[in-house]
Write a structure and sequence with these properties.
The chain is α+β, with helices and mostly antiparallel strands. It is 42% helix and 25% strand.
Length: 162
């Protein structure tokens, strides 16, 4: 299992390289979550992996429950598999999980000015949350403490039909 989780770290590192190209090298250099944290998401049933035709992982999504909603903590797609709808498919899988668990919405935090961040999520049905709920606000503060507020960020949500 640890070997599988190491592949997820490799996916995140590869996906992060795109940030270097737009002047955000600190994001590209940020270390992925440790294997034990990824294992905790898997054990909780809130980690999903997309594979290529050869059964090699090419993308993943991990999520938490925050303020009673399913919060997308991370979604990463390896560049060799990008622009094929894989990230959107993972988001839709997370939405189905949320509906099955009576969670009313998806949430996430993201960069506003990165084309594959907020603008992409808007195309996936997410909208900016002008006043996030308490636990999400705490998460945003933690992200700021980690230095992510050097670039404009926003909390977004996507209500789910019942």
């Amino acid at each position: 299992m640890d070997a599988d989780l190491l592949v997820l770290q490799e996916i995140e590192r590869a996906a992060g390289e795109a940030f270097r190209e737009i002047g955000m090298p600190e994001i590209a250099d940020d270390e992925p979550l440790p294997v034990d944290a990824l294992a905790a998401y898997a054990a909780a049933g809130r980690a999903w992996v997309a594979v290529d035709p050869d059964d090699r992982p090419v993308a993943y999504l991990i999520a938490d429950v925050v303020d009673g909603n399913l919060h997308i903590e991370q979604v990463s797609v390896h560049p060799r598999a990008a622009r094929r709808g894989i990230g959107r498919d993972l988001i839709e899988h997370a939405a189905a999980y949320a509906r099955d668990h009576a969670l009313p919405a998806l949430t996430l935090t993201t960069f506003t000015d990165v084309p594959w961040n907020a603008p992409y999520y808007e195309r996936c049905g997410f909208r900016v949350m002008p006043d996030p709920e308490p636990a999400l606000r705490a998460l945003i503060r933690a992200e700021s403490d980690h230095g992510l507020d050097r670039w404009p960020r926003v909390a977004m949500h996507r209500p789910l039909p019942r």
